[in-house]
Design goal:
The complex is a heterodimer.
Chain A (H helix, E strand, L loop, with lengths): L6 E5 L3 H13 L4 E5 L2 H11 L3 E5 L7 H11 L5 E5 L5 H9 L3 E4 L4 H12 L4
Parallel strand pairs in A: 1-2, 1-3, 3-4, 4-5
Chain B lengths: L1 H11 L5 H11 L6 H8 L4 H11 L6 H7 L5 H8 L5 H11 L5 H14 L4 H6 L2 H11 L6 H20 L4 E5 L9 E9 L3 E7 L1 H12 L8 H26 L3 E3 L3 E2 L4 H5 L2 E7 L2 E7 L2
Antiparallel strand pairs in B: 1-6, 2-3, 2-4, 2-5, 3-7, 6-7
Helix pairs in contact in B: 1-7, 2-7, 4-8, 10-11, 11-13, 12-13
The chains are: A alpha/beta, B alpha+beta.
Chain lengths: 126, 291
């Protein structure tokens, strides 16, 4: 899977989580990678950069991931957003999928799992 | 988990010093368990018998088990069962202390029997790591009563210890500390809200936090920077996530995590917290929590 021409937005208040995702997609050719560290920034960065794929953490400062997701989907109904869920936040996933998230990843992020989810999202499956 | 308390038991009862414990914990990972130590722990041989066999080993080229059987101290079946025993972590700690001549075999025999008696532990408890026994050990060690809040505190401590073992390493001992000792060079906190609220806080001295973070993240960290902050936050988040899941499943209570924060904790919260420290070979990591 070549991610060279894709734009990514990684939204997570954890530097380590952002770095993990960034390292994996960079190794697959991604070069246009934007980062946001709270829910408000996630929405504003999406509107400015219009990424092809967004990774969105659920618990973030200033605005929860599910609230940021609602705003992103309202702005762009075709947004491809992958929710990142920690242990203890799985209950939010049902709402996220209902609002319009196209897939989810369990944290800590596993690189094989991330690749599988990316493949399914970029392949158009939900 | 029993190792984490055995280390402090040795210190608290004057067998070794804190410095000796930390050094032994550091060496523990590369130590090899000897048959004599296993035999004492299982009650098959006394420390005096083990010493006699060791003396004879210096005089003849024979294995420990063979000499012990010839002298009638132990049977061949017992030797076989000892050899197949799973490596017991706390015994390795004991072995390191014996090898470094900090403890004698006799001291070790006395200490291990006292430890087992004080906390009503049996050999199977060490092998099977039964949840119930671990909770009872924590309850006894920290003098908790049978109240509902104590049960939550016991669950919380048990999970902290397990997560430290799993994500950082098992080379530590744990003990309660006074709230006045709860200070450090970076403080990260997170609250869990819902039917009840709890705030968890982690801190430590600069180098301890750096080494903790290096182990947790696998990153090359040399300063007290955003990677340390992220590691502490992630560890707390992971721990609290697991705690909320455990409580939700067992008690049918909904709980929610808030984002971790750095250096924003009120000192009054710490004064009302339960505070413990995990003493690793690289330094102390301190935890405070309110329940």
């Amino acid at each position: 899977m070549d991610l060279t021409n894709k734009k990514f937005l990684i939204c997570d208040d954890s530097l380590l989580a952002r770095k993990k995702i960034k390292d994996i997609i960079s190794s697959m050719g991604a070069t246009e990678i934007f980062e946001a560290y709270d829910g408000e920034q996630a929405v504003s960065m999406y509107k400015i950069n219009k990424p092809d794929i967004t990774f969105l953490d659920i618990i973030m400062p200033k605005k929860e991931g599910t609230d940021a997701l609602e705003e992103i989907i309202a702005f762009d109904p075709n947004a491809k957003v992958i929710m990142a869920s920690s242990v203890g936040t799985q209950s939010y996933l049902a709402k996220a999928i209902e609002v319009g998230a196209c897939n989810f990843l369990q944290k800590p992020i596993d690189s094989d799992e991330l690749i599988k989810v990316l493949a399914s999202v970029l392949g158009g499956e939900k | 988990m029993f190792t984490q308390f055995f280390g402090n038991f040795l210190v608290n009862n004057g067998y070794i010093t804190s410095a000796q414990l930390l050094k032994a914990l550091k060496e523990k990972s590369s130590a090899k368990l000897k048959l004599g130590t296993l035999a004492i722990n299982s009650g098959y041989m006394t420390s005096a018998q083990v010493e006699k066999v060791h003396t004879m080993q210096s005089q003849m080229d024979k294995r420990f088990g063979d000499i012990a059987v010839e002298l009638g101290f132990i049977t061949e079946e017992q030797v076989t069962s000892l050899l197949s025993t799973q490596k017991l972590d706390y015994l390795i700690l004991g072995q390191v202390l014996i090898d470094n001549k900090i403890l004698t075999n006799s001291d070790f025999e006395k200490a291990i029997n006292s430890y087992k008696n004080e906390f009503s532990l049996e050999d199977n408890d060490f092998i099977e790591h039964t949840n119930k026994k671990e909770k009872e050990l924590i309850k006894s060690y920290f003098n908790f009563n049978d109240s509902d809040s104590s049960k939550l505190e016991i669950c919380y401590i048990e999970l902290i210890i397990k997560n430290l073992i799993r994500f950082i390493g098992d080379d530590f001992s744990v003990c309660k500390i006074d709230t006045s000792e709860f200070n450090g060079d970076m403080i990260v906190s997170q609250s869990v809200v819902g039917k009840f609220e709890t705030t968890s806080i982690i801190t430590g001295d600069k180098q301890a936090l750096i080494d903790f973070s290096k182990r947790y993240s696998g990153e090359k960290i040399t300063e007290l920077n955003e990677y340390v902050e992220a590691s502490l936050s992630d560890f707390l988040n992971l721990h609290n996530g697991l705690f909320t899941v455990n409580i939700s499943q067992n008690e049918n209570i909904e709980l929610t995590l808030t984002p971790p924060e750095t250096n924003k904790i009120d000192s009054s919260i710490i004064k009302n917290s339960f505070t413990i420290k995990a003493s690793y070979s690289f330094g102390d990591i301190k935890f405070a929590f309110t329940l």
